[in-house]
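#struct-help
A.M.: can someone run this one for me? Single chain, 493 residues.
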Amino acid sequence: MASQTKLKKPNSHFSLCTFLFFTVLFTIPALFLLRTSSTCPSTTAAVSPSSDANQPPWSGDLQTAQFSWNRLAFSLTNPPPKTLRLAVFSRKWPTGPNPGGMERHAFTLYTALARRGHHVHVFTSPLDPSPETNSNTPASDKTTNPTIHSHGDAEPGKWRYNKAWELYQEENKKDPFDVVHTESVALPHWIAREVPNLAVSWHGIALESLQSNIYQDLIRKPGEPRSEGFNASLYGAVLPKILDEIRFFQHYAHHIAISDSCGEMLRDVYQIPEKRVHVILNGVDENGFKSDKKLRSLFRSKLGLQENSSAIILGAAGRLVKDKGHPILYEAFAKLIETHSNVHLVVAGSGPWENRYKELGEKVTILGSLNPNELKGFYNGIDVFVNPTLRPQGLDLTLMEAMLSGKPVMASRYASIKRSIVVNDEFGFMFAPNVEALTAIMEVAVAEGAERLAERGSKCKEYAAEMFTASKMALAYERLFLCIKDQRFCIYP
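D.P.: on it. Structure tokens below:
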């Protein structure tokens, strides 16, 4: 292995330079975050939900706002001041019971906007024709749901941007679209540069993926060799991708960051002009995730727990793979049950780590992949939600779902989560993404007990209801699209 072999001087020099470059690159976002938090705390506080009543409400040009638009007040009862014709490019449109995060975001957002009266046209890959996968997806109805345009000449879910672009051009000739929106690079930059009324939502950028590579490497055991593809991926793929992104991101007219920290990176590292970067946090269906005592009792009874049981149930959800943090969750929980008999871990998801969890015996329950209705019972039944992810990219919707369901969260201490979700210590616990830190914070949560965790959960629910709902997300996007269409709508309130 390269790490075990004495390198020649030229290679050592190259490695040192590369290391220093990555160190600086990795540190830049943190420095900007520190600068922002120390120099302009009042900007966010002035618009924060449940903030001091003495703080004046924010007003001004929305294009200059460097905080999340979710913090602003928008009226759900008033109809939109103008009905928009919107074009959306999404690689996939959810048809099955367990769609990915980006697909869920697109479906939730554009279903909400269509029901607000906007004319939404989604350009996507071929849908799965089987009735089983489409059973949970309502039929396209132009009056209440987006109009779906799936291109041909491909297998279901296989994205061909050129085919989707052809469909868009046909529709645009009939009646020009007011705003075009692409989910990440569904619409490539060499096409996007010719569309002045376009906005792109970034669900993860290469600079964040660099940090993910670092965190995943740091959990290696002493003496465990680094994977053969690590250096090749880091130097041959990740670094060039970061530099390429910094260059071609400029071709997109408007950028929507789904976390406050991503917004900082786009402005300060990717050098996108401030008025073209807008932070809008994702949202989840507020009607689908809420506290329900009956669901809690039913879920816990299926685990064999009595109604008055004081057992603490930790829950995790998502794919059971390394980058979701399951190696550290597995080890941390194994240590926890050595000294605590009254704890359980329930995992909603499937993947390679399923068999490893089974080694821990009856203290761990693997539920497999759950549909939205089953997730309701899961969130209500647990006492605290654990997200040990090793991927700082984007914001995990499961954190928002858990908080809306009235549960405190336990999450890796990343800037994206700390600045946009766990913004108050009362909302839960944060830890460095390693076994020792997670074990220690689990000890703290178990020591607090179910009653104290429930108190935290109530605060989470209150905050999430103001910040992370599908309605709030849709209203913020609506206002941005109105602003892109007509500068008058850029002035708030």
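A.M.: thanks! Residues 435-467 form the longest helix (33 residues).
D.P.: also worth noting: The radius of gyration is 23 Å.
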